[in-house]
Task: inverse folding
């Protein structure tokens, strides 16, 4: 069993963001005007890079944790 | 404002729910990541050093025992025959290898700790950026959407009042 497995959180955040974008696409079908464009540009678009940067960093950190766990694991009883 | 805007109200309300759900998930994930990172650091900086130092100390004991076993074996002569003490030699060699491994792991713990600390700092920066965005900018996004919904609702009420037929004149 892993000491810390970050994949669950990383996947959860990624999926939630995808669901938000899908929900926005559906919303846009009913709300097409300048306000919706402004909302997308100013409030939703900045979120994408932040989510990607965190999921990328989390996946990388998870790989580091896995390597450390493998290297420093108990070798078994004497 | 057009009729289409008024029809979009339900979709906008539903999207607001999605925004709130996403904010909840993002806050939960950020907190969980922080907790997991702290757990890992505790394992790396406390559990592992103790484990490998104890393993090293145990290795010294096992080597001492193996040397003693080998010496006893060498003294066991039957007539002119001297035993090879093959198993005792193997046991001593294995114990020495385990000691060497333990010493290397103690050093590895120190190396990994410095490396992992650096990686965690990088990760904390990314986590903090999203967390700050959710707590400030994203909260403003939700408030903006709420204001739009309220404005449309107010407009819809005015429209309804205007379209409502006037009551018949009193007799």
Result:
């Amino acid at each position: 069993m892993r000491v810390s497995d970050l994949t669950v959180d990383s996947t959860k955040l990624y999926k939630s963001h995808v669901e938000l974008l899908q929900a926005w696409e559906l919303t846009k079908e009913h709300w097409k005007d300048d306000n919706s464009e402004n909302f997308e540009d100013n409030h939703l678009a900045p979120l994408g890079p932040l989510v990607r940067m965190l999921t990328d960093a989390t996946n990388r950190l998870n790989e580091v944790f896995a390597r450390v766990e493998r290297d420093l694991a108990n070798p078994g009883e004497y | 404002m057009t009729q289409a805007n008024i029809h979009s109200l339900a979709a906008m309300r539903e999207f607001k729910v999605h925004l709130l759900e996403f904010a909840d998930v993002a806050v939960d994930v950020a907190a969980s990541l922080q907790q997991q990172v702290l757990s890992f650091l505790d394992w790396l900086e406390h559990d592992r050093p103790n484990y490998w130092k104890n393993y090293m100390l145990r290795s010294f004991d096992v080597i001492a025992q193996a040397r003693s076993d080998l010496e006893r074996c060498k003294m066991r002569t039957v007539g002119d025959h001297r035993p090879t003490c093959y198993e005792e030699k193997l046991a001593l060699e294995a114990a020495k290898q385990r000691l060497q491994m333990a010493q290397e792991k103690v050093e590895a713990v120190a190396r990994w700790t410095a490396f992992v600390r650096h990686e965690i700092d990088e990760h904390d920066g990314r986590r903090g950026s999203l967390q700050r965005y959710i707590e400030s900018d994203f909260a403003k996004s939700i408030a903006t959407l709420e204001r739009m919904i309220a404005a449309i609702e107010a407009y819809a009420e005015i429209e309804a009042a205007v379209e409502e037929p006037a009551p018949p004149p009193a007799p």
Chain A has a mean pLDDT of 93. The radius of gyration of chain A is 19 Å. The interface with chain B takes residues 3-6, 9-10, 12-13, 16-17, 19-20, 23-24, 26-27, 29-33, 35, 39, 42-44, 46-47, 50-51, 53-54, 56-58, 60-61, 64-65, 68, 71-72, 74-75, 78 of chain A (CB under 8 Å). Residues 7-70 of chain A form one domain.
